[in-house]
Amino acid sequence: MGRDPEYLAVVREVARFLADTPEQPVEEERAAHHAGMAGLKAPDVPLVVDLTAGAVPARLYHPVPGTPLPAFVFFHGGGFYLGSVASYDPVVRVLVKATGCAFVSVDYRLAPEHPFPAGVRDAIAATRDIVSRAGDLCLDPARLGVAGDSAGANLAAVVARHRRADLALQLLVYGVYDLSAPVLPRQSDPDGLVLDRDDFHLIRSRYLDGADPGDFDASPLLADDLAGLPPAVVVTAEYDRLTPQSDAYASALRDAGVPVTVVAGDGLDHAFLSWGGFARQPAEAIERIGAAVRTAFGLA
Question: Which of 140, 147, 185, 297 could form a disulfide with 171 if both were Cys (CB 3.0 to 4.6 A apart)?
Fold first, then answer.
């Protein structure tokens, strides 16, 4: 399909920004990431409330206050060391609008200060807490799911294994599911763009800090207990180096008897959830994600 001209103009600006930005200490990179995310277009959500989930901060987004709705516990991306509830606020608002569901975004602890399994423990505890308080938060306890993008999809997949009896759906967006795999090579881009850095090894070592990359809680693709997991909506991006892992995880879920819907982001790149407000091509993919979720939850 390829990138359409409008979308191509957007990602060229992203590539230019990355090329002009030198490697930075983690705290400076986090600040730059937050500043960049703050410029994203963010739809209005009628009810937004800060709270605590488990032992970490979280934020509830509810599109129809007073009405129990299907909901997701959401884990942001950022390579396990970037991102926060605050920086991902625009992305979560986009997903709320697209799906019609409530979301609880979780501020899990980040590497390198808090390496694996700290983030996993936070994600599991936060999900357990939200499940127990679903009625108080006006969430439908029969239609609760987990969601995440990139590193957050890894966490969502791990939580789904641990809390499968509590969950009705997984929404996994361009995730990384096997940290034991070799560093993913960068493919030749048809438009000559470079939208990431060759730092997968650094991200992995920073997160794992010597832990076994074959641990199922680090690499859910390797898990041998996928049967009985909740249905999954797996989202890919055509020009994403992680897409082979998404395809492999979708296949592993299907082989285990888990219903899977794949939303293919044709002509798109990793992180396209951030760019739907600037170009029609990612906006249409976000609409397809919303449609898949609404179908899975039986929403009009």
Answer: 147
